[in-house]
Each structure stands twice: as C-alpha cells, then as structure tokens.
Amino acid sequence: MTTTRRQALLSGLGFAGSRLGAQTKANPELDQALSLPDFETLAHKHISHGAWERIQGGAADEITIGWNREAYNHIRLRPRVLVDVSKLDTRIKLFGQELPFPIILAPTGAQGFVFPDGELAVARGAGAGQAILVISSSASLRVEEVAKSATGPVWFQLYVQRDRGFTRDLVQRAEAAGCRALCVTVDSPTHGARNREERARPELPDRPLPNLKGKDYLDPTLTWKDIDWLRSFAKTPVLLKGILNPDDAAIALKAGVSGIVVSNHGGRNLDTAPATIDALPAVVEKVAGRVPVIVDGGIRRGTDVLKALALGATAVQIGRPYLYGLGVGGAEGVTRVVQILRREFEMAMMLTGRPTIASIDRSAIWEK
Ligand SMILES: Cc1cc2nc3c(=O)[nH]c(=O)nc-3n(C[C@H](O)[C@H](O)[C@H](O)COP(=O)(O)O)c2cc1C
C-alpha cells in the first residue's frame, strides 16, 4: 500500500490510529483538513448560506472579530533551544477535574443548523476528543438530552433569564444532568447589532429553544446581586463568561465566583471591544492566581493556545472552529478539530522549549 502525502501528514499529527483511519475511509474529506483554517474553508461548502452567516457573523462591522485574530498574529514567540522536550505534560486541573490538555469547547447555539442533531454530535465528538464541552442555553435540545449523549465531562452555559424561577429550575436540571460547572454569560444584556445574521434570518427555520423561556429571555436588569442569588443555590462552580474589564474581575472575585472567562462573545455583541488576548493580561493581573482565567475568541492555532497560557490563561475555549468540524464531518469532524489543535499545541511546546504547562510563562513572549 502506498502512503499518500496526506496520510504521511496525518500520521505525523498522530492520526494514524485505526479508529481515525476508519473515519478517514468513511469521510475522505476529513483527510483534506489539516488545520482549523482548512476546516473553515471546507465547512463553507457544507453549511447552508443562512447557517454560515449565523456562525461567521459578528456585531456591526465585525471589527472585533478581526482584532481577535490579528492580535494573536502580532504576538511573537520567544523560543528556547536545547531543552529536553521528549516528554510533554499538557495536563491541567480545573475545579478538581483533570483535563488532558487546556482546550475546552465554548458554548454555541445553532449546532442543529450545521448538522442534524448537531448538539448530540458535538457532545459525542467532544468526548472522543477528550475535551470538556460547555452546553449552550441556546441548544435546540434539552440540556438533559445533550448531557446524556456526552461521553466526556460537560459544563452548562447559563443565561440568567427574566423568569428567575425558570432559571433556577434550569440550573438544577443541568446539575442533575451531570454538568460540572456553570458558565454564566454576563456580556449579553442584549445581543449586538448582528446585521449579517439578521439579513440571513429569513433563510433559517424557527428552531426549538427548550432551555430558554420565551423569545425575550435576555434580562437587562441583571446585576451582581443576581450572581449572589445564583451562588446561593448552585452546587457547582460558578464562572462568569464575558469579562474584559479588570475592574469587573475584581468585583467577581469579591462576589466569590470560581472562575472567569475573558470573552467578547466571539465579536458578536459589542463591536470595537478589544481582542480578548489584549484584554487578558490586565484581568490575569487583577485575579492574581486566585481563580482560573479562561480565554476565548480567535484561537485557531496551537501557537495561539501557547500564547494565551503564556499571558496567564489557565485554559482556552474554541467556538466557531468545532462548528466547522461539525459541518464537515459531524462528531468525527469535531473530534478532529480538537485533535489538530491539541497536536499543534504540543508542537508549539516543543518548538518553544516549554515541556510543561508551568514552563509556559511570560518569558515565552517576545516583549520588545
Ligand atoms: C454560532 C455561535 C453561537 C454562540 N452561542 C453562544 C451562546 O449560546 N452562549 C454564549 O455564552 N456564547 C455563545 N457564543 C460565543 C462562544 O461561546 C465563544 O465566546 C466564541 O465563539 C469564541 O470565539 P471563536 O468563535 O472565535 O472561537 C456563540 C458563538 C457562535 C459563533
């Protein structure tokens, strides 16, 4: 049997295992995607125009979406040579859970527009890829159903909704379903001016939103006292998702939250908010190691993961990239996206001479 260039590349990425080999036969297109940007290109062909606009689109002029990416491109790495990198340790601990590597799947709605029963495929794909999945409140299936099909650990993303009784029940349902942490989205008193999504909206069918109460669920009255309320009954760690300002990080710590997610909602809410990687260092400084800080937005390469950790993140989340994987190859596509990013992160660790997570610090960034 001859080895194609593609097979050789995949085997170099550690994809020569029989399970993935079998998937490769079933879906030869997965072979073509060697990087997350490759998945983006391929996904465009698979995903309907309406769903594509919904996923890709951001707020207004999409300035922040661009910044999320560009900011990573402007950070230069500072490698060390002649370090023994024959053994890598990529494990981290989060809330008593051990993760084999610091990459999490961010909550995204709209998975059903990308693939039939998209939520279930994502849950299976995340488990096979050994990544934690944060189930979205905007899922088209009940949180219990998604959690049931998960083969790995799941968290739940919560919108504290106008109906607090419904919200409380939802938290309790998610916890009973096995979600191990609550990621409360705090950057959405309203959605942003999602013009691109609005233009495409007539192309998309209505979908059920069983974890949301009514169309008008976002609550603009939400304040810190609601976080106290939530913490009074939540049994799992409460993280706040959508913090950019270090002053908010300071209040979050006083409020007793267990973690912070530095996020600008993938550039979908407040356009011209900064790139998350630019906002991260000041938040990390304020938090001073007291709780984990996770960052998302624009992470597409293993070097991005390393840069985020070097600037103080405990872990990163990806959103759109795994939706591309879902569009190209269902659950297998999601798994493949995670595996590629994980392997690239390992390459970045080796090539910068940082064999452990602890060794990835500010010194890995070329400051001047
Ligand atoms: C299609 C789509 C749907 C999303 N839905 C949610 C959601 O329901 N709740 C939430 O907190 N964030 C949501 N987000 C934001 C993601 O959790 C995450 O912050 C963002 O996608 C990260 O940026 P990236 O896509 O560049 O990786 C969504 C993002 C996308 C692209």
Q: Write the CATH fold name.
A: TIM Barrel
Strand order of the largest sheet: 3-10-9-8-7-6-5-4
Bound molecules: flavin mononucleotide
* Average pLDDT number: 93
Main sheet properties: 8 strands, parallel
Q: What structural class do helix, strand and pairing data support?
A: alpha/beta
Shape: globular
Topology order in helix (H) and strand (E) letters: HHHHHHEEEHHEHEHEHHEHEHEHEH
Strand content: 5-15%
In CATH, the architecture is Alpha-Beta Barrel
Note poorly predicted spans.
1-24
Portion of residues in helices?
A: 40-55%
The CATH C-level name is: Alpha Beta
Radius of gyration: 20 Å
How many separate domains make up the residues? 1
**Name of the CATH homologous superfamily:** Aldolase class I
Total number of β-strand segments? 10
**Number of DSSP helical runs:** 16
- How many angstroms separate the termini? 51 Å
Tell me what you see in this structure.
The chain is α/β, with parallel strands linked by helices and 368 residues long. The chain has 16 helices and ten strands. The protein has helices spanning 5-12, 18-26, 29-32, 36-46, 49-56, 63-73, 111-114, 118-128, 143-149, 164-176, 195-200, 224-233, 246-254, 276-287, 302-310, 320-352, and strands spanning 92-94, 97-99, 103-105, 133-135, 154-158, 182-185, 238-243, 259-262, 293-296, 315-318. The strands form two sheets. Strands 3-10-9-8-7-6-5-4 form an eight-stranded parallel sheet. It has a two-stranded antiparallel sheet with strand order 1-2. Helix 13 crosses helix 14 and helix 15 (302-310) crosses helix 16. The longest helix is centred in the last third of the chain and has 33 residues, at 320-352. Residues 1-24 have low confidence and may be disordered. The structure holds flavin mononucleotide (FMN). The site of flavin mononucleotide (FMN) has 25 residues, from helix 5.
